Amino acid sequence: ERERETEDPRLVDKMSTSQKHRDFVAEPMGEKSVRCLAGIGEALGRRLEDQGFDKAYVVLGQFLVLKKDEEMFREWLKETCHANTKQSGDCHTCLREWCDAFL
């Protein structure tokens, strides 16, 4: 019990994000598939690809066009590929943290 109270807050943060999220924000995105984004799996990835958003950087472009606005980006994802609340939130957090690290 005592040990848990003094846990490093960075570890707690790591536990609240997926391995996919941590892998994505750890390095430049280059030519990564849209499916590498946290929150985007096979079905959403296919829908985004069908709309022309085949690479993570294309979705990043939309995120930036929307001025990194969380509500607008999540609404766009919902309309574009039918992302649910968790999926759109995970994707937004992933892109926001990537931007914080690399832009």
Task: Explain this structure.
- The structure is a single chain.
- The protein is an all-alpha fold and 103 residues long.
- Helices cover 65% and strands 0% of the residues.
- Helix 3 runs parallel beside helix 7 and helix 6 packs across helix 7.
- It is globular, with a radius of gyration of 15 Å.
- 27% of the residues are buried.
- The N terminus is likely disordered.
* Helix-and-strand structural type: mainly alpha
Mean pLDDT over the full residue set: 89
Largest sheet: none
Written as H for each helix and E for each strand, in order along the chain, the element string is: HHHHHHH
Rg for CA atoms: 15 Å
The number of helical elements comes to 7
Low-confidence stretches: 1-14
Note the gap between the termini. Answer: 40 Å
Instruction: Please identify the oligomeric state.
Output: single chain
β-sheet strand percentage: under 5%
- Estimated helix fraction: 55-70%
Question: Could you say which overall geometry the principal axes of the C-alpha atoms support?
Answer: globular
Q: Tally of extended strands?
A: 0
Structural key phrases:
single chain; 103 residues; mainly alpha; 7 helices; 0% strand; disordered N terminus
Provide a concise account of the structure shown:
The protein is mostly helical. It contains seven helices and no strands.
What are the SSEs and their pairings?
Layout lengths: L1 H4 L3 H7 L3 H7 L16 H9 L5 H10 L4 H12 L3 H18 L1
Helix pairs in contact: 3-7, 6-7
